[in-house]
Every structure is written in structure tokens, then in C-alpha cells.
Amino acid sequence: MTTRQSSAADFLNKVPAVTATFWLIKILSTTIGETFADFLAVQVGLGTAVTDGAMIAVLAVTLVAQLRTRHHVPWLYWLTVVLVSIVGTQITDFFTDTLGVSLYVSTAVFAVVLAVMFAVWWQQERTLAITAIDTPKRERFYWAAILTTFALGTAAGDLATEALSLGFRSGVLIFGGLILVVWVARRAGANSVLTFWIAYILTRPLGASLGDLLTQAASYGGIGLGAGLTSVLFLAVIVGIVVREQVNANRHGVRTKGQAPAVAPARDYAWAVSGAAVVAVAAAMLGPVVNPAAAATSPADSQSGPVTAGKPATGIEADATSPLGDLRPFAIIVDDVAVKVSAGDIPGGTARVKDLEVAWDTAEAAIKPASPEDWHLMDSAVDDVLTSLRAGQPSASDVTSALTNLQTVIGTLDQKK
């Protein structure tokens, strides 16, 4: 065999077979990608810019390693998918949150970019099939398309959530149902390449909705596992399945083009069902946990700032005093920060505002669908407070102005009811 023939053969197995476990890992990796980025940016405190830069750098290194391998390496492939999930989400969030681009525009732009990419890919290679990623050029097209599908899936999912005011429970049902429709169409004879890419895009909003359902507190209508526990649970299931794939790859060697997967379909379905069952059982046994926003109203955290109406806040559904629900948990923190700043304790205000950032970020999936316009209004005011307090040399007047504006926004929303 010539060197050129050997090189081509080495690329026959750079992408795994599309099986039940393939789709399970894809959905779970979406949630891990989103929650891990949020954890670094908010809980760890790296901020959006540092987190974005770090994730892009890590993805670049991992993608180069993936492209340089001579055959399919399961752990490396799925690590790349998780990182692409993170960066794809960050791209959409950058356009939406930083540049203020409408989700209608970003969804349309990403859809056009993906269509152009597929057109060029088809014009040059005459196939878009995942089973034909057997040359370096096709693999580069493949990963570019994967990144774009994540960005498009994020934008389209967020657009559907905002435009239709879908909650995460409805999101799970709707996007899961759409994937089921695609599966039925494929079984009925629809084009396999088209149905694959449609399903691949839809798994992004499905994974995000599923993650929100598990992470959100019970008072918000979620299961209450929290982002950290959900990420660990999903990662454990992914690692278990990928280790199985890696062991099989080491045992059976490189799978040639058209060869059946090393694991029989029935056994693969069993692994997928087992993985999903682990998630379901863990969710039933471990949830719910305390709602972070409600926890912010505990006496220990509320040393200053009155509780509205003289009663403790118990979650967004406890007293729908605004289009976004009960904003008292956030108002209490804002009042605490304002008291510290007015006393000249800028460092104390900066430390306390971290609770606001975490509580607001945690509650986003639950409260944003209720009134996206009002959410964006308050989100902008929250960002102004965070920016003013975290400036290189915080100005007391700027901080006070931002806090006053945020208190005004909360008061205005409370009056809208």
C-alpha cells in the first residue's frame, strides 16, 4: 500500500458512528458546555471576556490535536465537541449581550452562514454525510459546520424562548418533540444527511432546556439539582460511555468505512437507556435543593435593606409582584450594596454584589421567558452596577448612580404587576 493510500485509510474513522449513545452524549455535552462557562465567568469570577478568551484558546489547542490524529480517538473527539459547544454558545452570547444584536438577526445570519458553508462543502466534496468525513479537508468542513450549528442552535433556541415565552419545561417537550418528528421522517425515508443536521441543530436547545430543568430550583419549576451537581452528573455519564468507546476502539482497532460499529446496536441502546436512567434516578433522589435567589434573603445575608412588605421572599412564584415575578430577593441584595456604598465601604459593596450576579444569572432561565423585554431592561441595569463596582478605581458617584437606577427599575417593574 502506498503512503497516500495509507494516509487516506487513516482518516476513515475520524468521526464516531451515529448511534443512540452518540445522541445522548451530544445532548449532555451541551449542558456541560453552557454551565461550565457560566461557572467560570460568574462563580469563579473570571468574567465573560477572560472566560471567552480562555475557552477559545483551549478549543484551538484541542482542535489542532483532533485534526492531527491519524484515526478516531473517542475521548479527544468528545472533548472537542464539549469545547465547541462552549465557544459556539459564547459566540451567540457575544452578539446578543455585548453587541446588542437582535436574536432574529443573529439566527438569520448563522442560518445563512451554515447554508453557505454546506453549499461550498457540497460543491467541493459532493457529500455532506457524517459517514464520509474521511479526508483532512472534509474534517475541517465538518468542525466548521459543527461550530456554526452550536451558534445557530443557541440563537434559534433563545429566539424561540423569548418570542414564544417558552419555559424550560415547554422547551424540553417542544424541542424533544421536534427531534422525534425528524426521527420519524428519517424512518419514513427522508434524506439521512438532511435529517442528521436538522437533529444536530435541535439538540442544542433541547440540551439547554434539559439542563435548565435540572438546575433550576423547585420554586422556579425546576428539579433543583443546581448547575454544579448537574454538570458533575452529566460528566460522569459522558465519561462512562466514552471510556467504553475508548476501550472498544483500543480492542477492535480502527473501524474501516462501512464497517458496523464495534458495539452491537442493541447493546448501544442499552448503554444509552442506562445513561438516561442514571440521570433520571439521580434527579429524583438528589433534588430539590435550596433556591440560590431565595437563599439570598436569609438573615445572615440580609443584614441591611428591608424586606418588602415585611415578609421574606420565597421564590419567583411565591408572589408575582412584577412581570418577572417576585424581585424581592434581588432588591434585598441591591439595598445591601447601596447601604455599604453610602457608608463608604466600596470593597464591601463589591463583595456583596457577587451575590446579586450569581442569583440573577441562576434565575435567568426561569424568569426571562416571562417577559424578555423587562428582563433585558433589568439585566442592563444589573450589568451597569457590576461594571461600576468592578472598575479599576470605582467612583462612588458612578456606583451610587447605577444602584439608584437599578432600584428604580425594580420599583418600576413591581408597579407594572
TrEMBL record:
Residues 295-316 are annotated as: Disordered. Keywords: Membrane, Transmembrane, Transmembrane helix. The chain crosses the membrane at residues 12-33, 39-63, 75-95, 101-121, 141-160, 166-185, 192-211, 217-243. This is Membrane-anchored protein. It comes from Tessaracoccus antarcticus.
